Structures are given as structure tokens and as C-alpha cells.
Amino acid sequence: MHAPPSLARTVDEIPTWQEVVETLLLRGGYNTTWVMIGTTLLGIAAGIIGVFALLRKRALVADALSHATLPGIALAFIVGTMLGVQSKSLPVLLLGAALSGVLGVVAIQALHRHPRVREDSAIAIVLSGFFGAGIVLLSVVQSMRSGSQGGLARFIYGQTAAMRHEDAIVMSVIAGLALVASLGLLKEFALVAFNEGFARVTGWPVTLIDIVMMGLIVLGVVAGLQAVGLILVVAMLIIPAASARFWTDRLRLLVLISAVIGGLCGYAGSATSALLPRKPAGSVIVLCGGALFFLSMLVAPRRGVLASIMRRIALRFRIARDHLLEQLHDLEQRDGRGTVIACRALADAMRERGWMGLQTRVFLGLLRLRGLIERRNGGVGLSERGRAIGARVARNHALWERYLIEYADIAPSHVDWTVDRVEHVLRDDVVRELERAIARTEAAR
Amino acid sequence: MSDVRGASLLSAHPEHSAESPLSIHAMTVAYRRRPVLWDVDYDAPAGALVAIVGPNGAGKSTLIKACLGLVAMASGRVAFWGRPLREVRGRIGYVPQRESVDWEFPVSALDVVCMGRYRKIGWFRPVSRAHKEVARACLARVGMEEYASRQISQLSGGQQQRVFLARALAQEADLYFMDEPFAGVDAATERAIIEVLRELRSAGRTVICVHHDLATAREYFDHVMLLNMRVVAAGPVEEVLTAENLRKTYGGRLTLLSEVSEAVARGEGG
Questions:
Q1: Could you tell me the domains of chain A?
Q2: Chain B residues closer than 8 Å to A200 by CB
Q3: Over the stretch A204-215, which tens digit does the pLDDT of each residue have?
Q4: Rounded Cα–Cα distance for residues B87 and B62 (Å)
Q5: Which of A122, A335, A444, B18 has a C-alpha 20 to 30 A away from that of A367?
Q6: B18 touching A, CB under 8 A?
């Protein structure tokens, strides 16, 4: 274990491998283990709740809510001290936090109802107003003589090290509640978040469902206050859900992935803070989430940045391939089978389409590798497979051009430009429909 | 005193008929202080396709939203088969405007159609296989069965509209409200929708559509309500769509006037 922290020491000792392994395997001591379990469960719960906060577009409201807890915490402390209750008692403080958080949400709605106040302004006003009130109340607390006010600052930045196993149990209960409620009400939440009007017309109590959803968000925020602090707690709700959105289009999977990401963040963050107690655990948890978000954004299949770059390259390649094959096809129609384009002419043509020399060479190499073109007499000509594709592209092209002229009321002078882009994304079934449509037109004449 | 006035006002209007699927009675709706609908009275005929037609901002969407309780009425009453909305919700289907939802939502076409079954499924329970089969059959009726598992953002605008229509069919309602179902759809979707509307009519259902296209109103619908803040005229298409009524509805707006006269000329010619 670590030596007790002293003010003189500002740098963490580097933990040994043994310490690292023991902590990760939840053998880092009684308190550490409980804190890690609690924080992981908190991450899971926040991940699940966050999905609905995100889908209902409540991310900013959740942020305002978390900031609005501060005056409640300070007031609960003041009132508790005056009434002689154990003023550091966690349930009292969290109750105060929840109440003033809810009050903040109600204030947003009340402000928003006024036609001159837009929702984003209402959120900003409540967030800063409540937080300011909280800071003032904290200074009142500091001037009180009880002398035990130091504990309140931990709710602003979070401090996992201050957590005890009772706190972890509270978090576990909240996580369990969130799990049961969101799985039980998955379809109701989805309906209200997707299409509120339809939900109302079909007789669902939208307001009640919304209140339950908001209640879960309040629970998640309040549970996260101790670990992450009120400034950053919204990240635990939103980042896992936003990251998960890159990986799936299915709601159930979204909930699952978000829960896993949230749990990972909680686990990694609390382990780090157990090993390096001078690093603020809340920020580490949020940074883990940020890293996972960035990773998801980058590498997720289909929706990720890399995937979309790859898609763009593939489309560019396909368009160029279709152009070349169609061009060769037209040449063969005119000059007979086996006609070639000279390499130099081809390179020039490609340059006009914005391809550099090296790119053109790679492109031609790939086409040859796929057996679409062949090198013949100092030029490039169609292979048997390339010929079939070229013919198909030319046919698509003609159909599409015809369709635009016949149906879409586009001036014929504009058609070529449009064709060059769109024809390459036509699917086979669309083509069949076009053929039938054109056949009908011709039959009608 | 106010009671007396209210009673005399009410007695000026016919009582709600229990046969009419929708009776609107002295409906007035105001946004802030500006009235959007003024004293609307209407009885929809059972088993008909009804179009609500009027210029932009005439209150067409507001009318059906007020009927469905989505917009508060400043005054008035709405009855369905002579009963209040809360008693008959299960018999009412709704197709909202396509733009009213976020199509990036992580659900498939089939999931959306299943939402039409949620009321029958009830709280907490997941969607059973039997309900999914009903939903799938509704997708087939609008020609979308092959897109069942497609994420909704991957559908074209017309296909999204058909998914909404399928969801309303899944409600198995007797009275349908549709908010601009033909707005911005492709020809295939327009055919699919009109096909479904005719099926509904032959099954004795009533459909009330907000419709913006005068030219097709005559062809697709049996009854028309011409609306511009107040009801200008309502009844069978051929009686209502007269040049005089259209002028009263659309006023002297130049661009619309040509469209209107064109529609009238086409209608009277054919």
C-alpha cells in the first residue's frame, strides 16, 4: 500500500507491476476493491441511462442538472449543521443535491415555456445561475465555525479516494435500478424519444415516462457526484452512449455497448486512481471515456472516420474504373474488338480527372490484378470480364440519362454532368425498374 | 351569466352525431394570441377519404393535431363516434409529418412499424413474435417488406413515409389522421399510398388527410374540407371544389391563383 499522502509529495510514486496486477484483479485492499466495484457499476448504469439522455436530446439538460446540484449540497450541509444532524452525512447531502438538481430542470422548463427564451439560453442561465449560487453558499459554509466544511469541495471535482464501501453499495443499488428500469421500459423510452406525438396519440402517458427518464438521469448524476464531481459527471452519461452510437444502429446493442464502455471507464479510472492517488480519479475516468470515444469515431465500421475515408476512396476508384471500362467499350463498338488506348493518352485523361501519375499507375495495376484490363501493343485494352462490365456500365449510363430526360424534368443540357456522378451508384434493381419504366413509355407512344 | 351565453351558443350548432367518426364542434385554436383556427365545425362522413385542403399556414396540421389532443384548443369540442378521445384512442391511427422525427434514431423499419402495436402490447412487455408478424405484413402492404431490417436513415424519403403509413396500419384503427402523406414522395410511394387509402376505404375505414395538392385532391379523395383559418366549404369533392370556393380559400394570391384556375379547368374539362 501507499504511504499516507503528505503535502510535500506532489508526484506519485510509480507503482510496481505487482501492485498494478493486484489492483486490476480487485485485490488491492478492502476499500480499493469496493471503490472499484462501485465505480464500475456506476459506469455501467451511467452508460445505460446516457443512451436515453442522448436519444431524448437531453445531454445539455443533464449538464445543467449536475451543476444545479451544488447549491443543494451546500444548503443541505448548512441546514444539517444548524439542525445538529451529522453534517457530513452522505444521504442528506445527496438528497439536497437531487432536490436542487430537479429544481434546476424545472427552472429550465419554466424558462423555456416563455416564448422569448430559447432552450439553449434557458440551459445556460440555469447552469451558471445555480452554480454561482452554489459557490456563494460554499463560501458561507467556509465562514461557518464548524470547521468540517472541507469535504464539500470533493463534490465539485470528485474524489474516489474519499469513497467508502457504503458509498459503493449506494452506487450498486442505483446501477441495479437503472438496469431494471431501462430494460423494462426500453420500448416506452424508445417510443417517446423517437416520436413523442405518436406516443401521445396512442395513449401513452408521455409526461410520466419523461419524468421516469429524467429521474434516472438525476439518480445517475447524484450517484456520480462523489466519484467524478459535478463538473464532469455529465461526461459519464454522454460519452459512452455517444461512442456506442458509432458501433451500431440497433437500440438494444447500443444500450449494451454503452454499458460496457461506461463500465470500462469506471474500472480503468478507479484502478488508476488507486495506483496513483494524486491523480484526480474523476478526470481519469472521463479521459478514458474520451479516448474510447476517439477510438470509436476513428475505427468504427461503417460510421467511423476511417471507414468513411475508405468508402470515399473506393467510390472514387469505382467511378474511375467505370469510366475507363465504358470508354474502352465505346471504342470497341466503334473500332472493333481489341482496340486499345495508348498508355500516355490514358495518363493524360486521368490527369484531367484529377489523378496523379502514381495514383494512375496504382489504379491500372489494381485493374490488371483483377483481370479487367490487359496490356496490349503499348496500350490498355479490355479483358473478357472487363468487356462485360463495360457493356453493363454503358447500358446503365444510357438508361439513367433517359430517365433524367423523361421523368425528372431536368434540362437536357444539364444531364451529362449529373449522369457522370450518379450512374455509378445505381443499383441493379433500380436499373430494372428504369428499364420497365422506359419500356412502358415506349409502348405508350 | 356566462352559462346562459354558452348554452345558447351550443344550441346553435347541431349535436354530435354518434355515427360520424369525427365531429368537430366550434373549435378555436390560438398560438399565443393569434387565432389559427376560428370556430371550426365539421362532421366527417364514415368510410370516406377526406382531404383537408388550404394554403400554407391555413391551420391544416393544427386542425388534426387539435383533434388528437396534441395542440390545446382555446374552445370547442371534438367527438369520435360521439365519444371523447380518451375512450376511443385504440380506434384512431396517426401518420405524423415525416419531418417531425429524427430519422437518425437507432431503429429499423420493422421496429418503427412495431410501435403501432405498442398499445396492444402494453407496459414493460417486449414485442412478441406474433406482433412482429403483423408489423411485417403491414410493411408488405406498402411494398416495403424487403426493407424491414434496414436502419431508417438508410431509407429514401418516400420509403420513410411508407414506413409511417405501415405503422398506422399496424394500429388497426377505424379512423386515420394523416399529415401530408404525399408531401415530397416519389411516384412509387404515391401509388402505394393511394392504393392503401383505397383499401382502407373499401374496408369501411375513414381517412382524414392534410393535402396540399389541389390537382390530385379531386382524383384521390371523396370529400374535401377547404380550410383557411375557418372552414370555407366542406362536402363531396365535386360540390366543394368550385372556382368560387377556391377563390375564397386562397384569396388573390397570384401564384396560387394560376394553380387554382388550372386545377379547376382540368377538373371541369374532364
A1: 17-300 (1.10.3470.10), 307-444 (1.10.10.10)
A2: 68-70
A3: 999 999 999 999
A4: 22
A5: A335
A6: no
